[in-house]
Design brief:
- This protein has eight helices and eleven strands.
- With 243 residues, the chain is of the alpha/beta class.
- It has a single domain, classed as 3-Layer(aba) Sandwich (Rossmann fold), CATH 3.40.50.
- The protein has a seven-stranded parallel β-sheet with strand order 3-2-1-4-5-6-9, with helices on both faces. A two-stranded parallel ribbon has the order 7-8. The protein has a two-stranded antiparallel ribbon with strand order 10-11.
- The chain is globular, with a radius of gyration of 17 Å.
- The protein binds NADP nicotinamide-adenine-dinucleotide phosphate.
- The site of NADP nicotinamide-adenine-dinucleotide phosphate has 31 residues, from helix 1, helix 4 and helix 6.
Length: 243
């Protein structure tokens, strides 16, 4: 088949949605997955892609998702997020389970399921959206920072395990990006979510999507291993300049 195909998980909002648009612009047929299929269908109609239901925490859902994709050149492991902010002493185990299932095991399930197709493509690329939380620990963030560290280690391990195979691996680690991320983290509390981004020139989803597009458009011998990208107003995970 001559059309190059890309798979984007968590494409119903934020970084995933913008990335699907960017890769479609570059001529990819894009398979988009998430749980909110109504949103995916609108996006698929706009970009000429294929919307598929996907819950990365569910083995059967991931299996059906991968089976519906005939061949894959690019996989963007983007589905993920945070739940809550709590000190270790008050950690909510259900929030931890959600973060580990979604970010870590979700990335593992989808990557395992699509790896044979990425290798068979002869020129595969796996982009994993980790976070500055994969490099730093911050107060009250241990559930998310530990999950993002684990997701990143899974991705970095695969980089060495796939040496010699025609698959590139790129980790993109963003700082603050204004998306639905904080709305999800704070259980739908819009006021609390808005405070996270107040007084900062935040990154937007398109900033990350353009970086994915740049990575995907390099020639096959060029592997961008890690890209850390933050707003100018952010020096570290928890250190911001606010106006
Ligand atoms: N925003 C930031 O500041 C920031 C910074 C660094 C890294 N990141 C990372 O960037 C990625 C994208 O986040 P975002 O900022 O774009 O947040 P977002 O707007 O909340 O998007 C998250 C996406 O993940 C999907 N998702 C969540 N659980 C899922 C599941 N079980 N199965 C399938 N899809 C699932 C959501 O779709 P459904 O709810 O429809 O399933 C949604 O499309 C995440 O991995 C996040 O950790 C974000």
């Amino acid at each position: 088949m001559s059309t190059r195909t890309a798979v984007v998980t968590g494409a119903s909002s934020g970084i995933g949605e913008a990335t699907a648009r960017e890769l479609a612009k570059q001529g990819y047929h894009v398979y988009i997955g998430a749980r909110r299929v109504d949103r995916l269908e609108r996006l698929a109609a706009e970009i000429g892609g294929t919307a598929l239901p996907l819950d990365v925490t569910d083995d059967a859902s991931v299996e059906a998702f991968a089976a519906a994709i005939e061949h894959a050149n690019v996989l963007v492991n983007n589905a993920g997020g945070a739940k809550g902010l709590a000190p270790v002493a008050q950690a909510d185990l259900d929030d931890w389970r959600w973060m580990w299932e979604t970010n870590v095991l979700g990335t593992l399930r989808v990557t395992k399921a699509l790896l044979p197709k990425l290798i068979a493509s002869g020129d595969g690329l796996i982009v994993t959206i980790t976070s500055v939380a994969a490099f730093e620990a911050y107060e009250n963030g241990s559930g998310y920072t530990s999950a993002k560290h684990a997701q990143a280690v899974l991705h970095r391990t695969l980089r060495t395990e796939l040496l010699g195979q025609p698959v590139r691996l790129t980790e993109i680690a963003p700082g603050a990006v204004e998306t639905e991320f904080s709305l999800v983290r704070f259980g739908g509390d819009a006021e609390r979510a808005a405070k996270v981004y107040e007084g900062i020139d935040n990154l937007v989803a398109d900033d990350i999507a353009e970086i994915v597009g740049f990575v995907a458009s390099r020639p096959p011998h060029v592997n961008l291993d890690q890209i850390i990208v933050k707003p100018r107003d952010q020096a570290a995970a928890g250190r911001f300049h606010r106006r």
